[in-house]
Amino acid sequence: MADALNIREARAHFAELMSKAEAGEVTVITRKGERVGAIVPISVLDAIEDAADELAAREARQHLDDPTVSMAELLADLFADPGEAAGGAA
């Protein structure tokens, strides 16, 4: 389980949290007891970005041969916020 700090504590210990991230540790940041963010090692962020790119590429490959989905629709779906993606429907 990752350490958790509220925003005020995180602000006060920011340099220490950066050192922990460099050492591979994750720190969760909370506001009013709710998890709102995290300070993570850059390798974690890189892995998340790589996975998102791979997921987008897989989705694009699925629609390459589908004449009912235009490139514009595909790109709009790929770059839409997850809650707004309409699967090519308008």
UniProtKB/TrEMBL annotation:
Annotated InterPro entries: Antitoxin_Phd/YefM, YefM-like_sf
Superkingdom as given in the UniProt entry: Bacteria
One protein family per Pfam: PhdYeFM_antitox
Function: Antitoxin component of a type II toxin-antitoxin (TA) system.
Protein family according to the UniProt entry: Belongs to the phD/YefM antitoxin family.
Protein name per the record: Antitoxin
Organism of derivation: Kitasatospora acidiphila
